[in-house]
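[Automated response] Your request has been received and processed.

Submitted sequence:
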Amino acid sequence: MSSSQNKETLLHIVGIQSPIIWENPNANRMAFSERIENAMKAKNDIDLIVLPEVFTTGFSMNIDAIDSWKSGETLDWMRDLSKKYNVAITGSVAFRFEEGIARNRSVFVKPDGSFECYDKRHLFTFGNENAHYQGGEARKIVEFRGWRILLQICYDLRFPELFRQGIGLGAQMFTVEANWPKQRQAHWAPLLRARAIENQAIVIGVNRCGRDQFHQYRGESLIFDHYGER
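Generated structure:
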């Protein structure tokens, strides 16, 4: 957890690093409900909770097993928790849509029930994500409690121009929601720190832990300040 401050507002942030149950949205929603409740009991002044990438299913290419955007189940769940605890909640979810496409979508939900979305721009081609998901084109900066936050997802971290463009649009903070596997863990912290230093911005990287059918994940979620300090 970290406290971040600009001239206007102190923002208290919690990243929830967790294993993810494979292709089981209901079970994952229940598990994260408990983790969020525990976080709120531990500290009741939280403003923003950040969850990992595809936190309801894991990094699945089985489109039939992922969340349905039309059903609204995960979005409604996030909105209910956001209102209940008076916190913003953001995390990436793999959604399928009626037109037969799927998107890896970061959803940022505010306590008033409003929400904004960012679709992952750089799909992970080495994992064949681009064959199953449609990439986004637009950047998304969310304004919340005096801060301008650029939403990013996992592989986006390797593309510094996205972050620089975000700064040009007024971003002060970046969230990076990830399923970053153990075999590439050595790159995770240096890239997060680099994005913080080169942009003089706060970076929040929240990675899952545990194991899925293909990889191990070590977590190592981090928050870096403008100077690259943890």
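Summary generated for your ticket: The helical segments are 25-42, 73-85, 160-168, 185-199. The chain has four helices and 14 strands.
If you did not submit this request, please reply to this message.
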